[in-house]
Amino acid sequence: xxxxxxxxxxxxxxxxxxxxxxxxxxxxxxxxxxxxxxxxxxxxxxxxxxxxxxxxxxxxxxxxxxxxxxxxxxxxxxxxxxxxxxxxxxxxxxxxxxxxxxxxxxxxxxxxxxxxxxxxxxxxxxxxxxxxxxxxxxxxxxxxxxxxxxxxxxxxxxxxxxxxxxxxxxxxxxxxxxxxxxxxxxxxxxxxxxxxxxxxxxxxxxxxxxxxxxxxxxxxxxxxxxxxxxxxxxxxxxxxxxxxxxxxxxxxxxxxxxxxxxxxxxxxxxxxxxxxxxxxxxxxxxxxxxxxxxxxxxxxxxxxxxxxxxxxxxxxxxxxxxxxxxxxxxxxxxxxxxxxxxxxxxxxxxxxxxxxxxxxxxxxxxxxxxxxxxxxxxxxxxxxxxxxxxxxxxxxxxxxxxxxxxxxxxxxxxxxxxxxxxxxxxxxxxxxxxxxxxxxxxxxxxxxxxxxxxxxxxxxxxxxxxxxxxxxxxxxxxxxxxxxxxxxxxxxxxxxxxxxxxxxxxxxxxxxxxxxxxxxxxxxxxxxxxxxxxxxxxxxxxxxxxxxxxxxxxxxxxxxxxxxxxxxxxxxxxxxxxxx
Length: 580
Description:
This protein is α+β, with helices and mostly antiparallel strands. It contains 14 helices and 23 strands.
């Protein structure tokens, strides 16, 4: 690699975890090469990695933070004791840095919470008390994410990644104000810039006063970091609120940041996005450059950091509970092996096509009968879940904390069937022109827009800081601009008293290639009625025009509209005007 900053650890933290989960021999070999390089790179004082200073004696520690996460994952896979001594030596060195030279640069100062996660990870394995002193030092020198009605900065990735820092420190401080600060930060950014579907907020580099329309976008990095924060906060608190938001981002926003074959991605994605091209859309968006095009090589952060999104999701799908049980948190097909009850090892295989299907099946594999509680998370949108155990309906009621607990003496071959009935729900965004979004279960739906993919030279729109990979064949890795080839400027006709009855659910076959996140493959569609709004057009910056205030009067003839899952729509209208 020619880079000496965040790119390598960003890439490795996702790539390495995928290698461990998949057991792919070549991926494991590639990962091990870099892990060994890092272990052998440690200096006598404990420091490691590229030595970069940002000011007199101010060592830039940001890029080391994601690399520490790579080391943690490697240890969890291998139990290689060298990782513990490596991290201990590094943290002892960090403890020697004077406060006025510690975490002083913009990125490391914002993101000190990532360093804090690693310190607690090591403490939970070694119990060394001095690590808690370092944790306090990190918290003291990290940007202040505890401000009332303000944030230390409004960069989208920083907000998504760093708002959890106070809640991370709460594990040590036990100060309820620390935990509350994280919840307050989450609510603050969304109350101003997140009155849109998809679980994120508009900050197409930085959030800006007055730029709150759903055509404002968010970085792919921001999506990954929000999902990661949600997963950590779910660990810390058990609050299913965080799982619900993680699903919202993972199902409705994150998949649309990539071409269907995952060979290119875009820097920015918005809830309302009707052009995805390589033009400069500033100042309509905050950053200047070709940030809406699908490009395999651009930009330097997202093309590396995106790889952690799905694998972290899978790794956090199951969690241990404090009473020696297991909690199914994020429903996905897979298998978990864990010690439960009195220390007995069990395996649970999970089969599902959630969120495109409402059933989740579990099969227990154990060598002996074992008693332990099994917790099933009930999503916030689901009001009447049902559970069957070995074919018999079990009387259940989700507790106030959002879980169904099954306490049982489990035996080999036990089968659990969880059903999460899905219904149409229409959400009104009163602070964003009274627009609406449409959900079916955890899926948000977008207008189906015919997408015209235009192949481009990827080298032409690659950012300079991405460091074009010399020798890469651009013809094998093209970029794509995407333009609409059907009308997009529709508002919805809704039943004023029962808007959910304005839609018909259409179930379609599961796609042969296994990828449901495309318009072509969508296993679920909705049929609705709407009218075109002639005055709603592309704006002067080449973006979807600002939403008109609903209700909108238009004389256009009513039309039947097809809605598809938002996560599979690369061009999308997901915040709809309502027409009369």
